[in-house]
Amino acid sequence: MTRTPDLLITNACVLTMDADRRILWPGWIAIAGGRISEVGAGAAPDGMDTGRVIDADGGVVHPGLIDAHAHVAWGIARCFVPERFTEDEVFWRFDAPMLATVTDEEEHLGTRLACLEMALNGTTCFADTGSASRELSATAEAVEAVGIRGMIALLNGDAFDGVPELSMPTDTCVDRIERSLSAFPLGAGRAWACPGLVGMETSSDELVAAASELAARAGVPLNVHKSFSPGEVHVCRERLGGRDPIDGYRDLGVLDRPLTLVHMNLTSDHEVGVLADARPGIVHCPSASMMYAIGGSRTGRFPELVSAGVPVALGTDSTQWQNSWDLHRAVYLAATVHKEARGEEQPAIDAESALEMATLGGAAAVGRLHELGSIEPGKLADLVLHGRDRPEAHPAVDPVGSLVFSSGSRTVRTVLVEGEPIVVDGRSTRIDHETLYADVDRAGRGLMTRLDYRPGGRWPVFTGQA
């Protein structure tokens, strides 16, 4: 029988990420109707007839990476915030003033920039706990324009003292969530909505419970920041009479519904047991913790969570917390920083585990493990093809080690979403790079001027003027 896929990828080193973690070297992938139809080792069958063929030339092909936590709308504020800031200064000297003045156009440009950066670096899907301040249409339009996938949200909180741009009545938050879910339902496009909460003791139990119910009804996870910093955890434990933050969520019943907890930089041994039973999605953002010495590598228990079978994903976070949407950086850090922090050569998070976190863990965090995260028949054809034209890819003896520790995003050449090439030869097929960069630079300078904000502390900048 002649099989006629829409696209055939041949001569590839296929990191399947399937149940057996097979590496097909060489291997081939057939794509039909936007999904993977067949995967095999060696040369493609002679009876497979197709007009479109990509010869991977022996390069690595893996599932598209999934950035499970990225505040995309704040893209034009990259490197505004000095790394000398404390956590409180980031919130009060940058976040709050920016949210009071940022425009829809600036959020749209920021999202386009973030999505383009992700695509060029091999990320095909992301989850945003909330960054668009007023409405989601500009965010969704930017996602669709670049061609990646995004689980997007408005940032909601009803107990954020002192920041009126964030804190709203509970009913208003619930209404915003309901309208977002209705406007951008799962399955209607490459951007879909989920309930997003600021969390971190800025969302009442009433709001958390209501958002959780809406998430379950819509078939998407509740996406919320949790246990980010020592101060937050201290306040939460005082409120709960000394019990751990996850105990409070268990009391509310939200652990029994679709849930993704972002950060979890402070986790007790007791909480590891609770999370191992409930198995919500957990998102580890190593660079966001390291930027301001929050302590995720010291107190996050991420190796224990991975060992316990909890689906742990990786995220980059927002510009003011890490300044890059290259998830390969998070993969590298996850595979190394816990060894350094603990002085252990054999932690649970090694190169293979870190890559699983960026693919399968991410798919679980966005509630689409049945469609994303591995190269298997029936799953969506979201794929990343790496070239071999960089020194970091050689010698070609260990594709996983090379990808995690050496080549990373440097060798990304082609990116497919549903079989559509959205990046070819390292450039977007949909976005004019230079026009976007010019628009982002203009908007970034305008936002910085309105904020009357200067990072300061760098070496003198000489303009050449007398």
List keywords for this structure.
about 475 residues, alpha/beta, 16 helices, about 40% helix, globular
Topology:
Blueprint: E1 7-15, E2 23-32, E3 35-41, E4 53-55, E5 60-63, E6 65-67, H1 87-101, H2 104-120, E7 123-127, H3 137-146, E8 149-152, H4 170-183, E9 191-193, E10 196-197, H5 205-218, E11 222-226, H6 230-239, H7 245-252, E12 259-263, H8 269-278, E13 281-284, H9 286-291, H10 296-299, H11 302-307, E14 312-314, H12 319-322, H13 327-342, H14 351-365, E15 383-386, H15 399-407, E16 412-417, E17 420-424, E18 427-428, H16 433-451
Parallel strand pairs: 1-4, 1-5, 6-7, 7-8, 8-9, 10-11, 11-12, 12-13, 13-14
Antiparallel strand pairs: 1-2, 2-3, 5-15, 15-16, 16-17, 17-18
Helix pairs in contact: 2-3, 2-16, 4-5, 13-14, 14-15
Q: Would you mind describing this structure in some detail?
A:
With 466 residues, the chain is α/β, with parallel strands linked by helices. It is 38% helix and 18% strand. The protein is built from 16 helices and 18 strands. It has helices spanning 87-101, 104-120, 137-146, 170-183, 205-218, 230-239, 245-252, 269-278, 286-291, 296-299, 302-307, 319-322, 327-342, 351-365, 399-407, 433-451; strands at 7-15, 23-32, 35-41, 53-55, 60-63, 65-67, 123-127, 149-152, 191-193, 196-197, 222-226, 259-263, 281-284, 312-314, 383-386, 412-417, 420-424, 427-428. Helix 2 (104-120) runs parallel beside helix 3, helix 2 packs across helix 16 (433-451) and helix 14 packs across helix 15. The protein starts with 6 loop residues before the first strand and ends in a 15-residue tail after the last helix.
